[in-house]
Amino acid sequence: MSSNLDENRLVFGELAWFWLGDLSVKLKINFTVFMENLYYKPSGKAPALAFIGSLVLGTLGAIVLAIVYIALQWFIPIIYFNVFITLGFGAGIFYVLNFCFKQWKLRNKGIAILITLLIAILGFYAQWALFVSLMYNAEGTMGGDTWVKSSFNLEGFKAFFLHPSFIWEAMQGLNEVGTFTLKKSPVSGGMLWAVWAIEMGIILITPIIMAFRGITIYPFSEKDEAWMNKRTLPGRLKFVADKDAVVSSLGNHDFAYVYDHLSDEEEHFSFATAELYESETDDHQYLTIYNHQFTEKKGKMEEKKDEIIEFLRINRNSL
User: How far, in Å, CA of 131 to CA of 154, rounded?
Assistant: First the structure.
């Protein structure tokens, strides 16, 4: 009899632990869902026009940027300056596409990153097609850091652009002789391959990194079919030391924190500011709060700005 009681207690104990564990998991899931619902979440919509239009306009933009990129490198053959030109090329691809995404209302970050990658690859390829076509028509030697004279030939560019194998063969030939000099010595071989690899990485990675913070993450009103307008709230707020407490208050529709401004008569080295995203008829607004800290370095005041709360969802006309 005692043995049966012990067995029953063991079974009930295991069931109790199982039930408690299951309850804990459910509570964690519900809390996670609750927290996610507190913030703006893009709908993920990707209109066909946004996809096709971005690819078409992005292609044209990438080719134009490739022409500007090669022209700057050709006329300013300074390797250190070329790093900034390369960064500008990658950033330019992002800005062209970000404009397209905004105009055609793309709300899917994954699709935006995919398009950005495709156009970045195309831009990288186009600049190589242009560069080797110019090298094919070049005259002179490496004495002035690059070939002294060349001219653009559309047919030559098309021939290289449409035949990747031609570009690869030209790259191998250029790698043997070098395409620029460093301390009056041509850079070629393994070092030049490394430079080209770094160049490729900058051109491809720069726009993709920027796309993660592009227009597609910003609040869009599905009701008004428009991007929400940003409004900067007046006054400086108290520095956010406890994010969870502030989020909890705002999530419970307690906006006293936002109206509790710091005195304008005093100088504050730590404070917060707020921005609000809203549209004409949407049921929600989205609040973003930044912390600002000023510190003195080498006799100068430097500002550090951190995004503490991003796109917190609140009811319409709350602020």
Answer: 12
Is 34 a residue whose pLDDT tops 50?
no
Calculate the CA dihedral of residues 228, 231, 233, 234 and round it to 10 degrees: -170
CB 81 within 8 A of CB 180: no
Beta-carbon contacts of 270 under 8 Å, excluding residues fewer than 6 positions away, are 239, 291, 292, 293, 294
287, β-bridge pairs: 276, 312
Q: Calculate the dihedral angle through the C-alpha atoms of 97, 38, 248, 35, rounding to the nearest 10 degrees.
A: -100
pTM for the model stands at: 0.82
Classify residue 43 as exposed, middle or buried by CB count within 10 Å of its CB (0-12, 13-18, 19+). exposed
Q: Which of the 8 DSSP states describes residue 144?
A: G
Instruction: Measure the CA–CA gap between 240 and 181, rounded to whole angstroms.
Output: 53
* Helix, strand, or coil (residue 222): coil
Cβ-count burial of 8 within 10 angstroms (0-12 exposed, 13-18 middle, 19+ buried)? exposed
User: What's the gap between Cα 132 and its chain centre?
Assistant: 31
What 8-state DSSP symbol labels residue 301? E
Write the pLDDT tens digit of every residue in 243-293.
Answer: 999 999 998 889 999 998 888 777 778 999 999 999 999 999 999 999 999
Stretch 14-23: mean pLDDT = 58
116-152 pLDDT per residue, tens: 999 999 999 999 999 888 877 766 554 444 455 666 6
Burial (CB < 10 A; 0-12, 13-18, 19+), residue 256, is: exposed
Give the per-residue SS3 of 23-81.
HHHHHHHHHHHHHHHCECCCCCCCCHHHHHHHHHHHHHHHHHHHHHHHHHHHHCCCHHH
What is the CA angle 133-135-140, rounded to 5? 150
Q: Are 178 and 142 in contact (CB under 8 A)?
A: yes
